[in-house]
Amino acid sequence: MPTIHRWRTTAVLACARDAREWRITRRQAVTLALIPGGISVAAAATVVYPPLYIWLLAEDSLVEWLQFLSLLAAAIFLTFIAARLPASGQRGMAVVYGLVGAAAWFLAGEEISWGQRIFGWQTPESMEQINRQGETTLHNIRGVQELVPAAMLLASLYGACAPLVWAAVRARWKQAAPLHLLIPPLGLVPAFGLAAAYRLFRLLVWPAADYGISEYSEVMEFCLYLGLALFCWLNVRRLLHHRASVAGPRHRGGAHAVAVGQRRSA
User: Fold this and answer.
1) What is the pTM (predicted TM-score) of this model?
2) From CA 54, how far away is CA 99, in angstroms rounded?
């Protein structure tokens, strides 16, 4: 019991410190942690009414558009951050964010088949023959499609494990520079963790391509993309807050200089 109590205390303190560093309240951090679970449970509950479950996960339906909007938001935030980082001398990180941003733009386009079903153009015959869904997308091409689950697993594992590892070891490197551009907050661990758990479950326990469990991957992908979008948004907030904190003293200093000049001229 003392050991469990010590672990619990350490976890609570780590979460509180993490929330302060990301400038969010504890309630906001808890909300971030609960949202993915609520989404997952709500989607799974529709299984008892198959028409609703099928509609929810169908092409161009609710979950797919939520995936697209999450990726679009992430792409915008990533591009914004990449454009701002060189001003602070972080050119290497700007390149990383630029590359990830380009990937997010690409994935957003892939999610809606580059607008094919919206604008109604036909898939080229050469593409239709090798695409599982007969669409103008790359991730459904045979050979590429098999790599998608592995990529999703790696991305979700990183998002889930990196914050936990950093929270566990950071006390040993108290002078280490903040890693907020690389490591998500603890409140987003469930978003990435659920996606990782699903991929591991499919890989190790239930590899069969049954419709119900297979299509549920759409919900888990949404959790992953939502976690990415929220992580990027929190970093945008940090950048804007830092800019405001730097500009504030300069503005006050400039106003003070003007006031002194006016007094002298008077």
Assistant:
1) 0.88
2) 35
